[in-house]
Design goal:
9-stranded mixed beta sheet, globular, 12 helices
Length: 525
């Protein structure tokens, strides 16, 4: 190589080295000024202008929005008491926190906007500026095999009991343990123990790995501790903690429930089951319907306790049986929960004219239909009809334990009808199971919906948790869905195709045989 060529090469190397290369994604420049603009527009309404979790909407929410000033975060991959990583913060921003008012922002904001607002959130606390803090994610082991087997789940259940999970989460994991009515977070706000049967509402993720991570890290700011120290103390092994996570995951459905518009009620040959625990229900499809707070009419309910109901239905051509089940931490009224109820009503804002006061309210359920079925898609007003267009409802209450039928003429008026649906109910370890029955056709065609097979029958659901102060207009509700009373498939539907196949096969054999005979005759000539 010539001297000149060597000089040119050195100059090129120096020039390339002086050009800044693109920063890795995790180290990309973040603009806190731009992040503040995003925060003020989209976040301050809940989290407050100073990040203290005191925005204008905060007092309608449970759990409350995160207070960024203390840098205490529930969902992390770091050890208890440690700051979250940037990846932890981005995950919460991107995916949201199910079971809370925090939505997923990944589809609403650009990548740059989300990273800028994440950087701005960190300016609310001096802890993030402390260079002595070494934010390092924990090293998690891989999930062991065999986690869905009976032996593994039994082992997980043993540790569920031995390390005290049942004290808060309850014997069956529905958040109804003996300590549940006393729980509060570090800010003094009441907090519900997680219902382990609804993993789609887990704020840290629904999978086994996510549950294991929460067991290792704990949920800072809440009564949920980290169990990493139990591994360090040799009280249990890492694999045994995985078994606990696998047991907790087994309490929820294999897949998150999919909301479907139509409840299909098959027609059965036997008498429809009237007991909530009849074995026949195990063979009937279940449908999940989410419920939201009633926020249209005073007094409003911003944070309802019942998040949804499971519905099953069957009929025999004459009678409908509908089974509605939902998770409820207590069989209301329950004096043990009055203190929690009072704290809850003081925490979540109410627009009642008087200060809210805890009362021993019952649990309640309402199933709503239009009075008359129409050929079109017209339906009455979903919030219990109106004075001019009432709706037909079944209403069940836990105390006194009974069901009524009547016409709702708006949210404040319910006119009871003489004929009530049959009702049986069971409360079992934090779950209500209620079966309501009624004849498809009734004499009162003017007021009672006539349930017809083959028709799309509008139906809606309402629920009240008495121990959360829900009564009257403070309730959870759904929109309109549909009930379809299926007809049995006529035998001809199966027989006709089979006959057609046999006829076709027979004709084919005849044609083949004739062709063979002709061939034989020609060969003889």
């Amino acid at each position: 190589m010539t001297e000149r060529g060597l000089v040119v090469r050195v100059m090129l190397i120096v020039a390339v080295g002086s050009v800044p290369l693109p920063a890795p994604r995790s180290l990309a420049a973040q603009d806190t000024t731009a992040g503040k603009q995003v925060y003020v527009k989209w976040c301050a309404g809940c989290h407050g202008e100073t990040g203290a979790g005191d925005g204008p909407a905060a007092n309608t929410m449970l759990p409350r929005p995160r207070n960024f000033t203390g840098a205490v975060y529930k969902i992390r991959t770091t050890a208890s008491g440690q700051l979250p990583t940037d990846a932890d913060l981005m995950r919460a921003i991107d995916d949201g926190l199910p079971g809370s008012a925090m939505p997923a922002w990944k589809s609403r904001l650009s990548d740059g906007e989300r990273r800028n607002v994440m950087a701005y959130l960190k300016t609310f606390s001096s802890f993030f500026a402390d260079t002595s803090q070494h934010v390092v994610a924990l090293k998690f082991s891989s999930v062991p095999g065999g986690g869905s087997g009976a032996a593994a789940l039994k082992e997980g259940r043993q540790f569920y009991d031995s390390i005290g999970c049942r004290k808060c989460h309850g014997d069956q994991g529905r958040g109804d343990g003996p300590s549940a009515p006393t729980l509060k977070d570090d800010a003094g706000f009441p907090i519900f123990a997680a219902d382990l049967h609804q993993n789609w509402r887990f704020r840290g993720g629904a999978g086994v790995e996510d549950i294991y991570h929460r067991l290792r890290t704990g949920l800072d700011g809440t009564p949920m501790p980290s169990f990493s120290d139990l591994i360090d103390q040799k009280f249990l092994t890492d694999q045994q903690l995985w078994r606990l996570a696998q047991y907790v995951r087994s309490l929820s459905p294999a897949k998150s429930p999919e909301v479907r518009d139509v409840i299909h009620a098959p027609q059965i040959a036997s008498t429809p089951p009237v007991s909530p625990d009849d074995s026949a229900w195990a063979h009937v499809d279940r449908y999940w319907f989410p419920l939201v707070g009633q926020v249209i009419h005073k007094a409003r309910e911003f944070a309802p306790a019942v998040s949804g109901v499971w519905v099953q239905a069957v009929h025999d051509g004459k009678t409908l049986a509908m089974r509605v089940s939902w998770d409820d931490r207590t069989q209301s009224p329950d004096s043990a929960w009055l203190g929690f109820e009072q704290r809850l009503m003081q925490t979540v804002v109410s627009d009642d004219s008087q200060a809210p006061k805890a009362e021993p309210w019952p649990d309640q359920l309402a199933v709503q239909f239009p009075r008359h079925l129409t050929d079109g898609m017209e339906r009455p007003y979903f919030l219990m009809g109106s004075a001019t267009d009432p709706v037909y409802q079944w209403r069940w209450t836990s105390q006194p334990r009974r069901a009524l039928a009547g016409l709702a003429r708006g949210i404040d008026q319910f006119d009871t009808l003489p004929a009530a649906p049959g009702a049986q109910a069971v409360f079992d370890h934090g779950e209500w199971r209620v079966v309501l029955t009624r004849a498809l056709a009734t004499p009162d065609t003017g007021n009672e919906v006539q349930l017809e097979a083959g028709r799309a029958i509008p139906v809606a659901f309402f629920a009240w948790d008495g121990s959360s102060g829900e009564h009257g207009s403070r309730m959870a509700l759904s929109t309109w869905y549909f009930l379809a009373l299926d007809r049995p498939t006529p035998p001809g539907v199966f027989i006709s195709p089979a006959l057609a196949m046999l006829v076709t096969l027979g004709l084919g054999l005849v044609v083949v045989r004739r062709a063979q005979r002709r061939g034989t005759g020609r060969s003889g000539v």
